[in-house]
């Protein structure tokens, strides 16, 4: 009847390291070779003279500047081909991972923290490939891991190791302490990508208060994982007292989340609130968008 569960330990001959999902990096490399990217379908705002570093060739679209046409590639392929450039301006990216209580809940077989770690790994790979400096800060009630921003392949390997070591906790995150730790070690303006979650008003107030000060000197992108089950519970018609109670609680959590996100946006914080399967693509798309706008 599955009424009893027994746990045990089996001695291992060696330690086994568990790394984030590296398959997504391979898929990203394949999309680049096929002329695709995470920013496919987005319209590029071209600033004259802003891009001078060659990035790739692609098919010409009506919104392109005719001066971007590569006539040699056009003659070779028999159709208009544009040259795409990227800005040579290097940026600093600080990835912040909340490993506290709110990130321990499960979505799609993985914890929210696991989803965030996988996305952080992919983001660091793309940013380093773009020539940016990338750093990492893992925190809960205290700082759990830190890697100063650097660029290059060796930095990506170091970030992979740091991400492997971050474990979820049952403690409340101390946003203020984590952000002060970051501010004390980073005098240069950065794009701060924060992976966290909002469940109740108290946590929302703590985040809003701390992130507002951080956003005064940095560009902040707050990435949240939407829970489809929460949205479904908040909108379904209850057929019992229990379902009615669940609906009321779900609506309160949803409304608190909406209020917190609205406050963050009014204070200049960029936000993402998407399901787990869209987190990686949405985060990288927003990073590329902010990088092109040179914010």
Quick take:
This protein has 295 residues and is an alpha/beta fold.
Number of strands: 10
Structure class: alpha/beta
Which H/E pattern describes the elements?
HEHEEEEHEEHHEHEHHEH
Radius of gyration: 22 Å
Structure write-up:
This protein has 9 helices and 10 strands. It has 295 residues and is of the alpha/beta class. The protein has a 6-stranded mixed β-sheet with strand order 7-6-3-8-9-10, with helices on both faces. The protein is globular.
For the structure shown, list the relevant keywords.
six-stranded mixed beta sheet, 295 residues, two-stranded antiparallel sheet, alpha/beta, 9 helices, globular
Topology:
Elements: H1 23-33, E1 51-59, H2 71-77, E2 81-87, E3 92-98, E4 106-107, E5 110-111, H3 112-129, E6 133-139, E7 143-150, H4 153-165, H5 175-185, E8 191-195, H6 201-215, E9 219-225, H7 228-235, H8 241-266, E10 270-274, H9 279-292
Helix pairs in contact: 3-4, 3-9, 5-6, 6-8, 7-8
């Amino acid at each position: 009847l599955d009424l009893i569960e027994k746990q045990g330990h089996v001695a291992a001959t060696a330690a086994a390291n568990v790394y984030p999902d590296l398959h997504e990096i391979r898929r990203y490399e394949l999309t680049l070779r096929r002329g695709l990217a995470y920013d496919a379908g987005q319209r590029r705002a071209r600033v004259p003279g802003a891009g001078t570093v060659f990035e790739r060739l692609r098919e010409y679209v009506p919104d392109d500047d005719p001066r971007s046409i590569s006539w040699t590639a056009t003659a070779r392929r028999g159709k208009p081909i544009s040259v795409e450039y990227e800005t040579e301006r290097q940026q600093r990216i600080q990835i912040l991972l909340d490993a506290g209580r709110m990130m321990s809940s499960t979505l799609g077989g993985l914890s929210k923290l696991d989803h965030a770690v996988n996305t952080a790994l992919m983001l660091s790979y793309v940013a380093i490939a773009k020539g940016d400096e990338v750093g990492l800060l893992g925190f809960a009630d205290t700082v759990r891991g830190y890697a100063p921003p650097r660029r290059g392949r060796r930095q990506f390997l170091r970030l992979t190791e740091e991400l492997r070591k971050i474990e979820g906790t049952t403690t409340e995150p101390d946003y203020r302490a984590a952000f002060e730790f970051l501010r004390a070690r980073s005098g240069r303006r950065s794009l701060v990508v924060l992976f966290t979650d909002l469940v109740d008003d108290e946590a929302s107030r703590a985040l809003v208060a701390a992130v507002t000060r951080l956003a005064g000197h940095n560009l902040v992108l707050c990435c949240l994982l939407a829970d489809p089950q929460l949205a479904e519970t908040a909108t379904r018609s209850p057929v019992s007292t229990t379902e009615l109670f669940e609906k009321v609680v779900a609506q309160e959590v949803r409304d608190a989340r909406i209020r917190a996100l609205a406050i963050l946006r009014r204070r200049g914080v960029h936000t993402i609130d998407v399901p787990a399967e869209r987190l990686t693509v949405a985060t990288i798309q927003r990073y590329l968008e902010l990088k092109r706008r040179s914010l």
